[in-house]
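Chain X:
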Amino acid sequence: MASEEHTVVGIASELPVEEAETAVLVEDSKNFHRNSLPLAEDPEDEGPFAPDVFRSECWYEDGNIVLIAECVAFRVHRGLLAQHSTIFHDLFSVPQPCTDASELIEGCPVVHLSDTSDDVERLLRALYDGPSAFKYGERLSFSSIAPLLELAHKYNIEALRDDMVLRMRTVFCHQFSVFKSSAEFIYSPEGYTERILRSTALEIVPSRDAIRSVELIRLIGETMMLPMAFYLCTLLPAATLISGSKLPNGRMAYLSPGDLAHCMEARVVLALRAYKARERISLFRGTETCVSSNAHGCGPGIESVFGSPRATRDVDNVSTHALTDWGKRIKRMAWLCKSCRTGLVEENNACQRHVWEKLPEDLGLVVPGWNAAVETAT
């Protein structure tokens, strides 16, 4: 990722530093809404920034530093920033030259940030409000935590970064047992148009979040999370993988050429694995201890429910979702005898486990420890 520079006026000349979506917030705080008024009403008092810069309501009268992102200014406390961020701490520790009055806003030195104003608002809200900024115990959207994690990484805000990473690990997990116990795929509320991955802590909408997740995971260096992020990308149409996805802040997220190639190739492999998994389940003929009232046992009923993909030859609707969990459908099959239901659930788990073990390889990734971390599902 290209290094960025923040122009600092009155602090130092230049120092290099490295949408459900309101769910991340307890509620929109009035202290963080943008104010449409310029910094000063008297043109003679506006200073060099006021004609183009608007004051946010994150503007503390006792603040002693002004952050400017895009055209929005935030008057905050340098002590708070320095306490949470080693980057700001080091920045503020640099001895300061005498500052010309024209380089101040209401007597405060100015730091220009290259981040979007919306993302800076989210970050400041998290720092000022602390735990109350989040609905702990409730599911957050990936699009709401991604900007926080990116800026926490950029400015080395360790506690915030760690919290966001823990949330991500509940869905971008590397252990099969964790995947089975804490994460699940559901269909989008809008209909059977998209599968959403969620845990009790986080929700991922692939069309909006998958490509962004690869970018972010590579940024923070969490290699163990990459296979699930890549897997979500393989669920997207090829056109989306190539053209990228638009983020809530207006930026486009793209896969690198190498990652794009891996995902395109993996779509074929995973489609074949999904085909084989469904065929294996549809051909399950029941257990030796089957006590079905049907003379032919539970087997024919199982095939009629799942259908043999080989028999239907439905190649136009081949899915790349090789981790499909048929457990809920199996539970709804009330006519199954207890023995065959248990056997079919075990067959379903075995299909998923096999896909899981092969996932990094199928995606063209080298993830040390992935296979060693795989646990036998109970």
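Chain Y:
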Amino acid sequence: MNKCLATESSHGIHSVIGHRSRPGWVYIEAPVQADVRRFIQGVSNIGQYQQILAVPPAETLSCLQGAPPFIPPSNSWVRLTGPPLYKNDIAYVLKYDRRDGAKAFVVPRVSLNPTSTSKGRPAQSILHLDALVKSFPAKTQVFRESPPKFTFKTHLYRDGYRCLKTFDIVPGMPTETELNMFIDSSLVTPESVAFAQRHIANSRLQIKDRVLVTHGAPKGLVGVISDLRDDSATILTTNYPPKPFDVPRADLRKAFRVGDEVIVVSGPKKGTVGWIVSLTSMDLTIYTNKSDDQFEIAASNANFYTAPQVLLNPTSQPPVAGTSSAFRLPFSHDPLHHLKGKEVTVTGANPFKGLEARVKETRNDGQVIVEVAANLRNVVVDPKNLSTRDFQPVPGPSHQYSPAVPLSTLALTASVPLPSTLAPASGSQYTGMTPRPSTTSATTPAWDPSAQTPIEVQESEDISS
């Protein structure tokens, strides 16, 4: 339209329409498309786009109508699209008025350095009244209210937050860092904080997490995530046979249980690994054996933890398939290999004492990874704190270089009949096995017990160990 005014010519254009609710779209009324193409040539941010679509006559009236405004509920979270100083910042809505817009507050962006010449946006921080009066005594006016209310450079602040009345809002949820700046405010309700924490926890969902459905038709269903998308997830029920369900991510929360091994992903205890010893709908009590203490965290700040798989010999290269080293590696470098697959009971000073488990993997530090039968979680345990089902200690480290394989007692039969010249004499039994030399006759070096040859295992020998 400015082009029309600058050249005092309509260029065949009757009107130009744009609406803030439809960013990126411009409607131009003209008799033919050729007039539109000539008109947009040289116009900044428009002339480079050559895709021109004709609006059907039945939809022309909709071009004059804006989308219905976003009306947030009271005590909810939004993102600001203006003013520029606070664009894309999270804000908390106290209430919404159709005349004035959303009455919200946001973490201020105020520099307390009077001589600062920085042109960028100041960092967000709660505005403390004492520091503000010290830096700008003439520009601060204080009102005696609780929480404290004051004005700075004609802008209203309450409890250290900037108050706004604006229509420039879109739906939004705070990140963990943004929520921490609001969590101590008396203006934010506990329900709003809990809702934001659940949203943050949903963003941390991972495949194989055990979850509980909180809304919808399958409410109360417990399953394991098999597929994860931006706004939904597929879960498999824990009963047999498992059934898949597609559920919105907002309707899921992690189904923690006592005994689960978790890792803290936020807060002062971030990175700590421990076991759940008690829980509520919002909080977990974690025990860690490294410091031998317990602490409480919000359930949204924990993830299920699976012990990492450690190479049996980190300094060696992975074996190449098809070579003999690929088959010798598990027996040559893993003295605890004989424990894999054993059904055991956890004993000793351990939160899982008395629970049944199965050994799944071994580690370089002499520990083993067991799967607890009660919750199907992987736990790192010292082999000394395990016993077999008959309450016998598990066997210690084994240094054998090959597994003990018992001799077969079944007679072997040749797959191809022997020629008559090689057939056994009548009355003798052919076993198909190479006969061993008599102990009284001379033997070749192959049967020398001191040679590197397979050792004979007597059938009466106990090979279970």
